[in-house]
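Translate sequence into structure tokens.
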Amino acid sequence: MTRPTAPELDRRSVLARRAEVQDLISPARRATDVRGLGIGLQDTPRGSGLAGVRARTAQPAAEVGRLLDGGPLVLAITVRGAPHVLARAGLGLLTAALVPLQESEAEEVATVAAAMRAVAGGRPVSRPELSGALNDRVPDTSRSWCERCGAVHVREELFRRATLHAGLELDPNESSPVVFRPVTGAAGAGHEGAEARAELVRRFVHLLGVTRPDELAAWLGYRPGEARRLWDLVAGELLPVQVEGRRRWALASDLDALRGAAGAGAGGVRLLPPSDPYLLGDRALVVPDRAHQRLIWRAVANPGVLLADGEIAGLWRHRMTGRRLAVAVTPFTALASSRRAGVREEAERVAALRGADRVELTFDS
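Result follows.
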């Protein structure tokens, strides 16, 4: 029997749909309605998560900045052991989805998480205090020598994974040292593991438009076989498609919208932070030019990206000095005056989020 030919989707239509679903064409009225909060916006470096939310909402930037500290948004260590900004009400589902698949790993995480809860005792606790107090409460097999710290403590990856299951969030106002505090107001009950995992995969595929199992594995930081187990939970809801000659998958419920987005484009300008959800998945799909890929995805200190009319059109970095925010933009090609005006408006919103009272914007060649 001949396998049916997978539908061919245009790259521009896929990216237009991605921008639409990620609230980059028509921003959400309220920051809490930003759909990317369902999987989280990575907060690396600190402040990036809220910057990504700010780029997706019509709510004033200064108001967005107040939503994290005990508000409807939460900063927690989740996917790949990285800090993410999420909807507080949805943290329970993500916690259930990220329980390790291997029983032995799940038990180890649960043991360390229980010890963390005992140490915290319902109060804020610094990273050094938490780490040090765990040594007498966890098995030796959960600890190892750390060259950076010059001490024995819970393995770094295990420590990070356990904080979520210990019910600890990050204090957004403290970074040196990092401070954990008990999560409040999150919906933590009623989520089954398989159901939560399936929903997390649906959200990931929906936000990207098209993707593959290996891209899910990279995002989760899972081994290929583990990611495939999650993928299989929703396999019956997926359809194969072709984009740029490569086989990918989309939610069957999204296929018409992906086709209909052709030619729609993603109008306007956005300054997106490093590790933004728009950049997830196949890098060549989002940024075809390999030289530009190397500039965006670096070994350390990734820049933010300039999104203009549905394409990554450049890089940007910023520096805060007192109450002044310096924003340096490096376009890949010359920007029209209207686009430069849009960049200035975006820079002013970034400044409002950061609490700056003036902006110094420069365009580098």
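Note: Residues 269-363 form one domain.
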